[in-house]
Amino acid sequence: MNLFGSWFGLLFISFCFHQSLGSDQPNIIVLLADDLGFNDIGYHNPDILTPNLDQLAKNGIILEQSYVQPICTPSRASLMTGMYAYKIGRQGTPIPHKQPTGLTLDRKLMSDYLHEQGYATHIVGKWHLGFCNESFLPTSRGFDSHYGYWGGSQDYYTKSYRHGYDFRDDLQLDLSANNTFSEDLYEARVANLIRDHASNSPDQPFFLYMSHQATHTPLNPPKMYEDLYPNIKDDARRKFSATATAMDEKIGSLVQTLKENSMYDNTVIVFIGDNGGNPVVGGGGNNWPLRGMKGTVYEGGVRTPSFIHYPRLNRTGVISNQMFHVSDWVPTFLHLAGASDQFIAEQNFSGINQWRTFEDPDSEELRTEIVINLDDDKGTTFGALRQGRYKYIKNPGLWVGWIPVPDSGIAEEFDSVKEVDNKFLVDIIHLYDIVDDPEERNDIKDLLPHIVDEMDKRMEELKVDMVYADNVPEVEGGLVNGIWETGWC
User: Fold this and answer.
1) How much is the pLDDT for 426?
2) Contact 79, 32 (CB under 8 A)
3) Distance CA 318, CA 63 (A)
4) CB 3.0-4.6 Å disulfide test: which of 67, 119, 243, 320 passes with 361?
5) With contact defined as beta carbons under 8 Å apart, do 288 and 404 qualify?
6) What are the φ and ψ backbone dihedral angles of 427, each rounded to 5 degrees?
7) Largest distance between two CA atoms of the chain
């Protein structure tokens, strides 16, 4: 009897352990859009046709105070590590193709953590976290597979950038991708991954990082998507809108495939824009009515469309105005995957586990501060910090105002001729009340000098933990016989 009881107890423990690491762990899908601005999604702007994203957001929680980094590589670095970019030396420029560096190897990535928790891990699309050495590649950083490209930009059809071809199936060069619209390729690969997982590993949790090429330049969407926007006269805006709709269609296909393979109900879907839209030099993006654009620390550069959709969360039609940072996703996903609070705390993430925010969007705000960016150039501090309702900006660099949609009848707006004429002046500071003034039109630094002093002091304190930006010079390497290769640093 005792033997039977002991055997039954062990069996019960084994069953519970399997349940905790298997079917009870949700599948996790991260959908990252490239250069999609605040005004570039249907639920913010009905002129953009994104019905699938709108439906997911409507039946989930829209994160209206979701912050990312001002530009591509830093946002991806923060998303993958759970760290502020300035703490890992990635607060500077995006990694160009010939730069001999990559995302620090001193930190585990989201993929590493989830792999350790028993997940199958896949990335489809853009990497842009370094490829000069194989140790920087996604398949060396916790991902079971990668289908897509290593660099930061390429033609949607030829897969070429700076005279080099860049498209891989894991480490293997994939020339068959040439002349096929990238988002079509991603749609097919994602469907195959989901079907294969459902057939062969139904009890294993599934993680997909779908890193879209859309809506980055150079914009050349299939004509059938452009034809949906006959009233948009501006060429770049029409092509951008068409590319956003193409991406939306692929996301709709992904969701349908999840449903067909009985994976939808237990899948957490997160959507994020990696930085503000690019409204200049053919970019076609837009962040109206927010100030700024891609590459700036104003709201239009760092606050992008984002939402979470999870059928089991049973939260629909919710708009959350609680502060959220892209670094929060790693600890939040670790919590969902079954990691203990102690383990998460031991990782010393910049991000925090925000799951309670999703379970009860009206609960007390978990975040009171976001370091939007922080950098230093020869002793001069550059950056932006948000604490509660206040946002402090120090030496923002390139001046930019409010850029409306082309042909909208609204003139581009400026507020300071001095700053326009002196785009890179230092010793420029701003203070805004983001709650009452989300468009950053009313600088209140002279009204609240004590807040300016406190936030400036805090910014200087934060610099103690700053790792200087890894902006090493480019070298001659990487491009071999018209192919971008690894193994040159």
Assistant:
1) 66
2) yes
3) 9
4) 320
5) yes
6) 60, 35
7) 88
Instruction: Give the Cα separation of 321 and 38 in Å (integer).
Output: 15
Tokens of 405: 């949609």
State pLDDT tens for residues 36-77.
999 999 999 999 999 999 999 999 999 999 999 999 999 999
The pairs formed by 251-258 with CB atoms below 8 angstroms and a separation of 24 or more are 251/31, 251/52, 251/53, 251/56, 251/210, 252/51, 252/52, 253/187, 253/190, 253/191, 254/29, 254/187, 254/190, 254/191, 254/194, 254/210, 255/52, 255/56, 257/190, 257/191, 257/194, 257/195, 258/27, 258/194
Encoded tokens for 195: 């079907």
Active site residue 72: yes
Average pLDDT of the residues of the chain: 92
Catalytic residue among 97, 122, 128, 430: 128
pLDDT (average), residues 452-470: 97
Give the predicted TM-score (pTM) of the model. Answer: 0.93
Bridge partners of 210, per DSSP, are 31, 124
Q: What is the pLDDT of residues 165-201, one digit of tens each?
A: 999 999 999 999 999 999 999 999 999 999 999 999 9
What does the alpha-carbon distance between residue 173 and residue 252 come to, in Å, rounded to a whole number? 29
Q: Which of 72, 146, 216, 489 is catalytic?
A: 72
The answer to whether the beta carbons of residues 326 and 292 sit under 8 Å apart is no
